[in-house]
């Protein structure tokens, strides 16, 4: 597991996700237990025709077959307190069809193969652990996970609260623009006001490598 230092004595550990911990974090109530992080992995029709139990099964299936885990987890005292979804961009058909992505133009959408670019699509942080560095640790771990499995670039699609001041906490599961900027991502498109496409390109440099989780 990697570690990300917090103010004070606490530390957060991060690791590639394992299914029992994801199931424990998402629980049986609340939006994560209804979505199971499948919103971007399904088309609109597939989403509307699926049930939460089916979505849970689809995410569970992602942990079978030897493929890289579809996300990373953050822990405190061995308890999962956060999740970040990260997979090759081609795994997310709703991202590929989204306005924030298509409005970016072919110079953004078409400059990498679907499996070369990995997308950070969703953050889940347990109540009581928010605004304490968990999302920052998750993003660092997600970058390290993607690059360790062959990504040449990592993308995100965050919200800019400065342009959308009325956005609520429930709408920040994409992550915030400030979170991604602090991790070294650059804006490659802001064609949709209040939403950006951000990217960290290339293998980790010495500078960005210092931010990636230690293994």
Output the structural class.
alpha+beta
Strand/helix succession: EEHHHHEEHHHEHEHEEH
User: How far is the first residue's CA from the last residue's CA?
Assistant: 6 Å
Low-confidence segments, ≥5 residues, pLDDT <50? 1-9, 203-215
Cα Rg: 16 Å
Counting DSSP H or I runs of 4 or more residues, the number of helices is 10
Average residue-wise pLDDT: 86
Number of strands: 8
The best one-word shape is globular
Strand order of the largest sheet: 1-2-3-4-5-6-8-7
Q: Quick one: biggest sheet?
A: 8 strands, mixed
Helix content range: 25-40%
Strand and helix layout:
Blueprint: E1 2-5, E2 11-16, H1 19-26, H2 31-35, H3 44-48, H4 52-61, E3 71-76, E4 79-88, H5 93-97, H6 99-102, H7 106-109, E5 117-125, H8 134-148, E6 153-156, H9 177-182, E7 186-189, E8 197-201, H10 206-209
Parallel strand pairs: 5-6
Antiparallel strand pairs: 1-2, 2-3, 3-4, 4-5, 6-8, 7-8
Provide structural commentary.
This protein has 215 residues and is α+β, with helices and mostly antiparallel strands. The protein has helices at residues 19-26, 31-35, 44-48, 52-61, 93-97, 99-102, 106-109, 134-148, 177-182, 206-209; strands spanning 2-5, 11-16, 71-76, 79-88, 117-125, 153-156, 186-189, 197-201. The longest helix is centred in the middle third of the chain and has 15 residues, at 134-148. The N and C termini lie close together (6 Å). Mean pLDDT is 86; it is low at 1-9 and 203-215.
């Amino acid at each position: 597991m990697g570690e990300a230092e917090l103010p004070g004595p606490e530390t957060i550990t991060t690791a590639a996700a394992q299914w029992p911990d994801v199931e424990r974090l998402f629980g049986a109530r609340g939006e994560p237990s209804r979505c199971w992080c499948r919103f971007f992995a399904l088309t609109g029709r597939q989403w509307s025709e699926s049930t939460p139990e089916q979505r849970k099964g689809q995410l569970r299936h992602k942990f079978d077959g030897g493929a890289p885990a579809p996300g990373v987890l953050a822990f405190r005292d061995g308890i999962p307190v956060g999740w970040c979804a990260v997979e090759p961009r081609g795994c997310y058909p709703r991202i590929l069809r989204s306005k924030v992505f298509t409005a970016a133009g072919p110079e953004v959408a078409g400059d990498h193969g679907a499996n070369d670019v990995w997308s950070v699509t969703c953050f889940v942080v347990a109540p009581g652990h928010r605004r304490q560095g968990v999302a920052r640790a998750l993003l660092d771990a997600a970058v390290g996970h993607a690059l360790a499995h062959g990504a040449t670039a990592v993308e995100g699609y965050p919200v800019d609260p400065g342009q959308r001041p009325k956005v609520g906490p429930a709408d920040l599961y994409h992550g915030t623009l400030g979170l991604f900027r602090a991790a070294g991502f650059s804006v490659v498109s802001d064609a949709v006001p209040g939403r950006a496409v951000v990217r960290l390109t290339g293998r980790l440099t010495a500078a960005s490598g210092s931010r990636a989780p230690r293994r």
